[in-house]
Specification:
2 copies of one chain form a homodimer.
Chain A lengths: L5 H10 L15 E3 L6 E10 L10 H19 L2 E11 L7 H16 L3 E8 L5 E10 L15 E5 L4 H9 L10 H7 L5 H7 L5 E4 L4 H12 L2 E5 L7 H9 L4 H6 L6 E5 L5 H7 L4 E8 L5 E4 L17
Parallel strand pairs in A: 3-4, 8-11
Antiparallel strand pairs in A: 2-5, 3-5, 6-9, 6-10, 7-9, 8-10
Helix pairs in contact in A: 2-3, 2-6, 4-5, 6-10
């Protein structure tokens, strides 16, 4: 019979070194996993397409890592700990030399960093752009998962890290904005930081949580609709990185982009006053900022400026369709 | 704030009716699943791209069903029972009207038929062909999963159902072969039949198993390499549907396509003589055929004709690269 075709060589060379226990050497029809006893499973899936979710000329090292981190961010938003992942890659036949090596090397680095490994997947060809899909598995103590519903009027509205870096970083990479000297904004677009330690620490403290992927205002609207209440965001309280702060100072018209641009992958959450959020975040080593509060009334998000006046926003967030 | 964009409307309209318990209304960052106590999890993922795994003008009703069934076939090959699935869809903006309705309706039909539901996923846009990915979860009694390794010389080589229909059906749909009156071959290409009942019945009886996706000879080679033995396939014993039989009788040059064409999604397995395979298959309501046996020697697959003479095959199976 013929030799195994090139596809199996690709998988063996690049993906087999990423396989962990249960993956059965990526040589069976499926993976086997003993679920951790007494835990609930947490499952999420995200897709990324070249030219839509990452730039076609992004370094391949960061592309796999971004896909993994976007999914890890979903686990963080549920307060879950990672178990493993499955990934499918639809790749054009004319990938640049070294692309797969870089892609797999980036995944290997983040597997070590976040303590998980690949369980299985599929590699196929596509007559079009690179199209990736990743399903992540995590676990959480029964009933302890953070959920989107649960915010109440009077709860503080909190966010982790800094907001706007991803959206600004995309425009830096598109040469529509000047780069900062350290490359911070571009790095934040390419490598979001899943807030796993913070998510775990918020279980039992936060009343509702999600991660910011489509834009702060739009995602805050999801928390409001799930809770049946409103929210107000004080723009002056938004945590900005020094690089983002410099850009917004130079051009205040960028503030709406910070509020609605997306690609933040920070945790947005509701907590009652006195919940001990700052102590928990400090123990988790993650900066958090109270940027507003939930209010009585319809499920609307209002953004107010330093004088308390409402700000008009040109768009609600990112949509694919 | 702005209304939720169109993407959320798409998901709510078409995919929310498919969501089952644990999916949290597709409104959270992740799904929650209580793993069945005392069972191992079985996990597989497959991708499908328009123009590669299905024809761009295939009815949308069958496309989602094929993706689900290909994954269910992986569970069947492990002897596992389905629990649920996550799916990501990368869709061009110019989908024909009604495409998503049909796609979701097909999935709904097969969810009922196979007793599972969607747990989560992602819907994104792609400047290229439809690109789909599905991760399936199943469960199996601990240690009972069928594996690819384990065949021994002297074991019978068995296959379920009929072989070659998928590969012939693709050529019928491409108008490279005449259609059968009942449309059997095209239907088999579009809607493979996952052998879940047979897979479950083979646990404890078969020594090794996998599903035939890349071609009978190539996939048989996987069983041989995993076991470190050879195999011989008797071409005269191949189970052909009446429609496939008629085409091969009219043009014997099609026989290599039957042996190597792939898209069969039948179970290929090894069992020692006297294992009671026929009784188990009969109880599962699935036809099985002993098409050869495993042999001492190197991990090679030989195909012999009715006179015992070796047949030369032009290619080993389907490869993406």
């Amino acid at each position: 019979m013929a030799e195994p075709p090139a596809e199996f060589g690709l998988i063996a060379r690049h993906f087999l070194p990423l396989a962990g226990p249960g993956a059965l050497g990526l040589a069976d029809d499926a993976a086997l996993l003993d679920p951790p006893p007494g835990r609930q499973l947490v499952l999420a899936a995200d897709a990324m397409v070249a030219g839509v979710h990452f730039l076609p000329n992004d370094p391949p090292e960061t592309i796999g890592r971004k896909l993994l981190r976007v999914n890890l961010s979903d686990l963080a938003a549920m307060g879950a700990a990672p178990l493993g992942y499955l990934m499918t890659t639809a790749l054009p036949r004319d990938l640049p030399p070294g692309w797969l090596e870089g892609f797999a090397a980036g995944l290997a680095e983040d597997q070590r960093r976040f303590g998980l490994s690949v369980l299985g997947g599929d590699t196929v060809s596509i007559p079009g752009p690179i199209s990736l899909s990743l399903t992540i598995l995590g676990s959480v103590a029964p009933g302890a998962a953070l959920r989107r519903a649960g915010a109440r009027p009077g709860d503080g509205l909190w966010v982790s890290g800094t907001i706007g870096d991803g959206a600004l970083g995309l425009r830096v990479l598109q040469r529509r904005l000047p780069a900062d000297a350290e490359g911070h904004l571009a790095r934040r677009y390419r490598l979001p930081e899943p807030r796993l330690a913070l998510g775990a620490a918020l279980a039992g403290l936060a009343r509702a949580a999600m991660d910011v992927s489509d834009g702060l205002v739009q995602d805050c609207g999801h928390l409001c609709r799930a809770a049946g209440c409103g929210a107000v965001i004080e723009a002056a309280r938004l945590p900005l990185s020094p690089a983002a702060h410099a850009l917004v100072m130079a051009d205040p018209a960028l503030l709406p982009l910070v509020l609605t641009g997306g690609d933040d992958y920070e945790l947005l959450f509701a907590a009652p006053p006195g919940a001990g959020i700052e102590a928990a975040a400090s123990a988790a080593g993650t900066r958090v900022t109270r940027i507003g509060e939930f209010t009585e009334g319809p499920a609307e998000v209002r953004v107010i400026d330093a004088a308390g006046a409402p700000m008009a926003l040109p768009m609600g967030g990112w949509s694919h369709f």
